[in-house]
């Protein structure tokens, strides 16, 4: 059972998370998500020390470098309590360049340059991006399948709770449903952030990402239920 139900997760600033840096209350940030590892850190297979060291900080790079299997990513979901937001005074937001312009500038100066922080945060497997691109270029017809049915049959996901299931046997066990949801959420939150930078008054709800999973177009929304993945159409 997750510590906090996906619908109850909250938005935290980096400053708020930084206060939780002791064994009594230990939080870490990974891929813009906030994890409460207070109860878990002493059981962490990599040792309590590494988590204490990263307490209150962004441990995305450290965790990615240390974890060699999909197991940690699948367990993390349990400890997620929210995601990171940037709170800025409105006039500071106005002064910033529009996102599109900034992106164009970055593209021009890209060769040899360091990748931006945002690009690093959005690092997702190429196959995921390709899935979305493929999905967007195909005609769709409606489906009434449930999300569980869709991911249960997918050959790129497996069910960690039931590895002997049809999906577990036929799947390549590369990424699980949970891992995919985590990736989608990180991507969606970055998009949400971009839109708010340009239009601070824009509502959060309704911003989401389409993903192509085994013949189905799936939608994950940033509004209300992080972690939700709904099949919305069958792809021809
Ligand atoms: C909720 C957060 C985390 C969970 C659920 C988790 C889970 C795990 C698990 C299951 C393992 C053993 C399996 C494996 O090595 O692939 C592991 C190992 C390890 N983790 Fe984590 N981890 C978390 C966060 C972190 C963070 C933030 C760091 C880095 C600072 C970290 C560093 C390590 C290290 C160094 C190992 C040992 C790797 C080895 O022995 O090869 N973990 N973790």
UniProtKB/TrEMBL annotation:
Belongs to the cytochrome b5 family. SUPFAM superfamilies: Cytochrome b5-like heme/steroid binding domain (SSF55856). Residues 91-174 are annotated as: Disordered. Residues 9-85 form the Cytochrome b5 heme-binding domain. The keyword Metal-binding applies. PANTHER family: CYTOCHROME B5. This is Cytochrome b5 (CYTB5). InterPro entries: Cyt_B5-like_heme/steroid-bd, Cyt_B5-like_heme/steroid_sf, Cytochrome_b5. It comes from the Eukaryota. Pfam families: Cyt-b5. SMART domains: Cyt-b5. Keywords: Heme, Iron, Metal-binding. It comes from Durusdinium trenchii.
